[in-house]
Amino acid sequence: MEAVFFAVAAIIAAVAAVAAWRRAAEAEERARKEAQARTEAEERARKEAQARTEAEERARKEAQARTEAEERARKEAQARRDAERRAGRLSADLAESRTEIARSISESELVDALRRALPALAPERARRLERQLETLARLRADAAQLRRGMEAAVDKDIADQLRKKLEKVESDAQALVERLRNVLQNDPDFHGVRLALAWNGRVSPMPKKETDKEKKTDKEKK
To answer: 37-74 pLDDT, tens per residue?
Structure first.
């Protein structure tokens, strides 16, 4: 009986030892899993924190880029406005110069500019303007001749007659000059002439293109 008792006790002790070992193994396994879970959670938290930091950095850079783009756009808009104001002032100054140029140039400059513009005009218009310029030249020549006559005249009556003729010739010449200045100032055909004079440039208009009628006339002549 005693032997049986010891055998049963040994079996119970062995079973208890196995159960204790199993409990210890299970506890160790749980501890390992819990440690692994904590490590994984910490890694996830670290990655999430890193992702948040990276997202915040991207947002900061995007905000900075937007601010810089807005500043560039503001400066570009300001530069455009400044350029438009400068262009407007230049255009206004040039328009004023073109308006006043016909009044400010000398008679010889006026005649020279109009002669240079003749090739760009319609034939009939060019001939009419050329006759006006020839008339002005003739009036100035007559005035010069009358002055010489007055200087050479001995008789007072003759000198008075020459003076009256001179006053009439000079008045006619001045009236013609005024008409020519009005033509230069207001006629659209002389826009290029006014522009060139305003820029103190040489007046060299483009030759007028032949019309179909003129081309047909040339063919008929051939």
So the answer is: 999 999 999 999 999 999 999 999 999 999 899 899 88
Confidence of residue 90 (pLDDT cuts 50, 70, 90): low
User: Per the structure block, which two tokens stand in for 46?
Assistant: 């670290």
The answer on pLDDT for 9 being more than 60 is yes
List, as one string, the DSSP characters of the chain.
-HHHHHHHHHHHHHHHHHHHHHHHHHHHHHHHHHHHHHHHHHHHHHHHHHHHHHHHHHHHHHHHHHHHHHHHHHHHHHHHHHHHHHHHHHHHHHHHHHHHHHHHS-HHHHHHHHHHHGGGS-HHHHHHHHHHHHHHHHHHHHHHHHHHHHHH--SHHHHHHHHHHHHHHHHHHHHHHHHHHHHHHH-GGGHHHHHHHHTT----PPPPPPPHHHHHHHHHH-
Whole-Å CA distances, 72 to 77, 179, 188: 8, 54, 43
DSSP state of 200: T
Integer CA distances (angstroms), 65 to 60, 71, 75, in order:
8, 10, 15
Q: pLDDT band at residue 201, thresholds of 50, 70 and 90?
A: very low
The amino acid that residue 174 corresponds to is Q
- How far is residue 52's CA from residue 122's CA, in Å, rounded to a whole number? 79
- Rounded distance, CA 161 to CA 27, Å? 144
